[in-house]
Amino acid sequence: MFKCSHLLCFVLCLMVLGALPVAAADGPSATATATATASATAPAPAAPSPSDPAPFGANLFQGHFSQTAGGKVLQSGDRLIMRLWGGRTLDDILTVDAEGMIDIPDIGRVPVAGLPIDAKEPLEQAIASKLNAAGVVDVEMYVRPMDTQPVSLFVTGFVLRPGNYTGTPSDTILAFLDKAGGIDSKRGSYRNIRVLRQGREMGTFDLYPFVLKGAMPHIRFQDGDTVVVGEKGPSVAASGEVRNVARFEFRPEELNGSKLMELADPQPRATHVSLNGSRGGAPYNLYLPLSDFKALHLESGDQVRFLADRPGDTIMIEAQGAIRGASRFPVRRNARLHEIMSYISVEPGRANLGGLYIKRKSVAVRQKKAIEDALRRLEQNAYTATSASSDEAQIRSKEAEMLSNFISRAKEVQPEGVVVVGSRGKIADLALEDGDVIVVPEKTDVVLISGEVMMPQAIVWNKDKDMDDYIRGAGGFSNRADTSNLIVVRPSGEVIPRAKEAQPGDQVLVLPRVESKNLQAVKDISQVLYQIAVACKVILDI
Question: One GO MF term, please (predicted)?
Answer without folding.
Answer: polysaccharide transmembrane transporter activity
